[in-house]
User: Fold these one by one.
Assistant:
Number 1:
Amino acid sequence: MENGQEKTNFSNFIEVHRSQLEISGVPERFWPSVYSKLENQYFDAGQKFMLTYVDIEDAKTEEGKTVGGDGREMEKPPTENAPSKLKVVVSHEEGVDAMDGDSIYLIDHAWTYRFTEARIQLQTVPGLLPRMMSLMGLAQSDGQNQDECIEKVLAESWRYSRTYSVNAQGLIAEDRQPVWYILDEFGSQILHDDTPSCRLVPFFYVPHQIAYSLLFPLRDLEYGDDVTVDYAFPAQDSLMRQIRLLPWQPCDLTHIDTVQPEPDLDYMTRVCNCISPEVGANPVLRDISGQLRVYSDHPQTLANLHHPRFEFVDKEEEADILFVKETFRDFRKLSNDTHQYVSQFPGEKLIVTKDMLALTSRRAAGKDQLGASCGPKWLPVTFDLWNNLPQFVSYFQQQEKKGAPNIWICKPFNLARGLDTTVASNLNQIIRQTETDVPKMLWHEFPGHFNQQNPGYEWDEVEASIHDMIQEFFQAAVSKPPPRGITHCPWSRAMYALDIMLKWDTDSAGKKIIQPVLLECNYFPDCERATWHREEFFDDIFSTLFLGDIKDRPVKELF
C-alpha cells in the first residue's frame, strides 16, 4: 500500500467486503493480501504447497483397514488401475508462517452451478464432463455412455461440492438460492481432519462478480505437513459431526430412534412470536350489518374486491377490517382496544411454515396394529432437517436396509413457488443440502376429466376425502393450547391455500384407493389464477369471512 490511490482502493475493497471477511473468520492481518491477490489475480499456492499421494501404510487404522486421507475406508489398495488418493502438503522448505500476512492463498473453482442446472451443464459445456470425471478419479468403463458418466459424476459430486449464497440487497429470491461449486484440481485434494491445519472459505469478489476460495493456516506449518480442513465445520456436537462427515466416512446410525419429539415451550413461543389476545366471555365485535371499511396492503385484493358491502380506506385506524399480508403481532390491541377484524391468526406459523406444518399435522395421528402412534395417512413421512437430522438419517438407512423406496422431496423453509426444491434419493446429497406450470383447466372441467382418466374412481369421493383431510388438519392445529396450538381469536379471519398431491394407497380392507397428501399450507396465497377463473373470487372470500354469507357462493362448509 505504497501510494494514496492504493490505500483508497483498499479502503473501498474493505467497505464492500468487510462483512464477508468477518463472517468467514478471515483474520484481519490477511486482508491486505486478499485484496492484492484478487486485484492482481495472483495464484501463488503452488509456491508453498504440492500434491502427493496418501501413503497406504500411514492410512492403516488400528483395526487394519485401509482408509483414504479423508477417513473413508478404501475397498482396495491403490494399483495402476486404481490410483491412490491425492493430498496437499507443504512444499516450501521454510514452511508456512501462520502470522505472515501473505499466508493466504486464492483457490480457483473448476465448476460453479445450481443443482437444477448441473445435468444440462455436464451435457452441453465442452470438456466439463471429462474434467469432472478426472478430478473425482472416476474411470469410464468400456461401453459406458455419456448419460451413465453424468450419473456417476452427479452421485460423486456431493463429496466434492461446497456451497455459498449471495445475499445482497435488492436481489430477488431466485438469485438468493444456494450456489454449488467444486474447487479446482488442487483445492479438491485438500482432505479432512478433525484437527485441521487450515481454513478454506468461499469469497465472492464483487468487482469481478466471481467467487474464489481463500485458504489460510490455523497454525505454523512445516515442510511436508498435511494441508487439511474440517469438512464438518462449524458443527461441534459429536453426533452432528458424524452425520456431517457421512459422505466421506460412512457409518451405521440405524440405532437412533426415529421419533421426532416436539420442541419445548420456549421454542414454540419464539416461533409464534405474537402478543395473544385477551378473550373474555363476551368479546366485543364490530357491527357487520352496514358498510365495512377495509385497509389492505395486498394489490390483488385492492384490484379485485368489488363487493358493494366493502370499501377501501387508506389508514389502518379508519378500517373495520385489516386485510394485510405484513405479519400482524399485536392481537391484544384488537381485543382490548380497536376490535378490528384481521386476516391472520395468532400462532398461524404452526401451519404455514413447512417445518411446523409437519409437527402440527402429526397430532392427527392414529395408531398402528401394535398400538404405536403413527402419522395421518395424508401426511407424508416428513423430517425437519434443522432439528431432526439424526432421526432422518436413521430412518433413511433403515429404509435402505429394507430395500424400501427412499425418494425424498427436499424443500427450504422460507422459499415459495418451489424455489430450491429438489427430489433426492442420495443420502450424501440430502446431508450436504442441509448446509441452506401445470396444464390450465377450469374447475368444473376437472371432475369429468378425472373420471375419464381414472375409471372406477369418482372425483366426488376423492374430493370428500380431501375435505376430511382439511378438517383433521385444522383440528390438529387447535388441539393444544398456545403456543403449541393456534390461539382462539374472535377477531381473526384468514384465507389459506393448501398444496395437495394424490397418491395410490390401500384402505384397511386392502382396497386400492386414491389418498390425498398434504404438502403445504400457504399464508396469503397468490390468487391471480383464481381471479382469472372467477372474477368474483375476492367477493366470495370477503362475503364468507366477514359477512358469514355463503349463499350462491362456490363455498363448501366443513365445520
Number 2:
Amino acid sequence: MNNSDENRRNLIDINRKVEDEIAAYKREKWIDLCGRLDPRKDYHHWRVINVLNNRCNQQNNGPTSNAITSGGYSSTTDRQTANLLAQHYEQASRLSFSREDRKQKKIYRQVLNQSKSYNQRDDFSNDITLEELDSVIRSLDPKRSLLVSTSSSVQ
C-alpha cells in the first residue's frame, strides 16, 4: 500500500512543488540582491562575481535559479550570471567625455610629459669649497632652527 503508484505520483508532485517554491524563493532573493547593488561601487559587483565564480568551480552542476536577463537572454548557470553582470558593469562604467574633458586631458598629458623632462638644478652635485662651508657654519646661530638659518644664509 505504501509503494502504490498513486503514492509515488503524489510524492513526485510534492517534490516538484517544493523545488519550484525553493527556486522561486531563490529567484526572489537574487532579484533583491541585484536591486541593492550600487552601480557606483564596483567592489559590490566584483564581490558577487567572485562568489559566483567560486561556487561554479566548487559545485557539481547542481540546480541553480537565476533571475538575470539581458536582451531577452536568461542565464541558466552561475557562470552565465557572472558573465552578464560583468558585461553590465563594463557598459555601466563607461564614461562619456565631452570635448572640454578631452581637451583638459590633452593639456594634462602635455604638462605631465613636460614635467618628466624638467631638469631641476641640483645643488648637491656642485663642489663646495672648504672656505664656503666654514663661512656658512660660522653664520649659523645655534639658538635658531637649522631650517630657518640655512634658508636665510643661502640667499
Number 3:
Amino acid sequence: MTGNAPVPECTDAPTKSGRGAIAVGSGIFISKLFGFIRERVFAHYFGSSGIADAWWAALRMPNVVRNLLGEGTLSASLIPVYTSFLQEGRDRDA
C-alpha cells in the first residue's frame, strides 16, 4: 500500500457543464438581442404616443395575472391564512 495506484481522469463532466453553460448563455444573449430589435422596431413605428402606452399596458396584463396566479404569489399568501383558520376551527371563515 504505497499509494501508487493510477488516478482515473474525469474529463467528461467539465466538458458537458461547459457546453451547457455556453448553450444557456447563448440563448440568453439571443433573447436579449431579439428583445432589443423588437424595441427598436416598435419605437420606430409608434414612438412615444398614447397608442404605444396602451399597447404596452395591454401586453403587461397577462403577465401580471400569470405572476399572481400561476407563479404562486397568491397561493403563497393564501394557504397559511387558510390553514390557520382551519386549525382554529373557523371553517366558515376559511
